Automatic annotation (TrEMBL):
Residue ranges the record marks as coiled coil: none
Database matches in PROSITE patterns: GH16_2 (PS51762)
Source species of the chain: Remersonia thermophila
Transport in keyword set: no
Pfam families the UniProt entry points to: Glyco_hydro_16 (PF00722)
Domain (GH16) ranges: 17-286
Position of the signal peptide: 1-18
Full protein name: GH16 domain-containing protein
Source species, domain of life: Eukaryota
Keywords, sorted A to Z: Signal
InterPro entries: Beta-glucanase-like (IPR000757), ConA-like_dom_sf (IPR013320), Glycosyl_Hydrlase_16 (IPR050546)
């Protein structure tokens, strides 16, 4: 959008509230964490499991640490997930998973969103970095395997390149309804590594599940949508739309998708993912309109 006098005012007004989950017409804020607290604290462990393990997945290199070097409240109402080179472990990094779970309700629209930026190193210094904001089906915490549990990747980025990816994983591996291990998804060009708002919306207000949708947005720009009849299997669709889901924020280092760090890859704050808030909303009405906060 061109920066006109009329667009400048809402931009400035919004910037004041950039760190708190915004209010949206027709939606109620159901759950959020805006990362209040003093600099160097761990995020609120009433809300988050802070991983302290090497998960050994996707050929990733990092060991996640419950350590304020890797996971901290900035003091400026954000959370920072910071990867570091480590003489013993190779790489350490941060990953938090919400204890909170939610189910997108029938007859409603539900939104999950976060405001995210990345450390300032250019892509040249980010080979191997793989930050993500995503959801997993809570069934994986109760014995169901992947991808049968369902996975919705709201935003993934690899190697510091300015492309955001939205993806679903479901059903069986390999192949299946979601074409594993690739999944089904779309992507969008990011304006910068600075603050962008990433959101998915479940629309369960339709007559039947076949026309329910899940839609991905970056700063209100739609970049992917999947509809029930494209999945065409009610049980699989319900793992993405009608079963408990939880939030994950992490910075992986290395792996099958991004490849591996090289000599130029740098660690520390320039490679971090910083999160201003994570929030889940739902409509009270069955046919609320999409929120419009687009300003640029
Ligand atoms: C942590 O989160 C819980 C539940 O959301 C909240 O009641 C509590 O006040 C939070 N603690 C701090 C220190 O913010
Ligand atoms: C929802 O849709 C119904 C019928 O389509 C309409 O009568 C009603 O006014 C709408 N409600 C809102 C809040 O838009």
């Amino acid at each position: 959008m061109r920066l006109t006098t009329s667009s400048l005012l809402p931009f400035l007004a919004r910037a004041v509230y950039a760190w708190a989950p915004p209010a949206y017409p027709d939606y109620q804020l159901v759950w959020s964490d805006a990362f209040y607290g003093g600099p160097g604290q761990l995020p609120n462990e009433t809300n988050w499991n802070i991983l302290n393990t090497n998960l050994g997945v996707n050929n990733e290199l990092q060991t996640y640490r419950r350590d304020r070097r890797n996971v901290q409240i900035s003091g400026g109402r954000t959370m920072q997930l910071v990867p570091w080179r480590d003489e013993t472990l190779g790489w350490t990094s941060g990953r938090v998973e919400s204890k909170y779970v939610f189910v997108p309700q029938p007859g409603k629209k539900t939104m999950a969103e976060a405001m995210i930026r990345f450390g300032s190193y250019p892509a040249d210094n980010k080979q191997g970095m793989w930050p993500a904001f995503w959801l997993l089906g809570d069934a994986i915490r109760h014995g169901t395997g992947w991808p049968a549990c369902g996975e919705l990747d709201i935003m993934e980025m690899v190697n510091g390149l300015l492309t955001g990816y939205g993806t679903i994983h479901c059903n069986v591996y390999p192949g299946g309804v979601c074409n594993e291990p690739t999944g089904r998804g779309g992507s969008v060009a990011m304006p910068s590594q600075e603050w962008n708002r990433w959101r998915i919306v479940w629309d369960r207000t339709t007559e039947d599940w076949l026309s329910e949708t899940i839609t991905w947005f970056m700063n209100d720009e739609q970049f992917f949508q999947v509809r029930g009849d494209q999945i065409n299997n009610h049980e699989v669709w319900s793992t993405l739309t009608a079963k408990p889901l939880y939030f994950i924020l992490n910075v992986a280092v290395g792996g099958t998708w991004p490849g591996y760090p090289n000599d130029k890859t740098k660690d520390g704050y320039g490679a971090m993912m910083e999160v201003a808030y994570v929030a889940q909303y739902a409509t009270a009405e069955h046919n609320a309109t999409e929120p419009q906060t687009k300003t640029c």
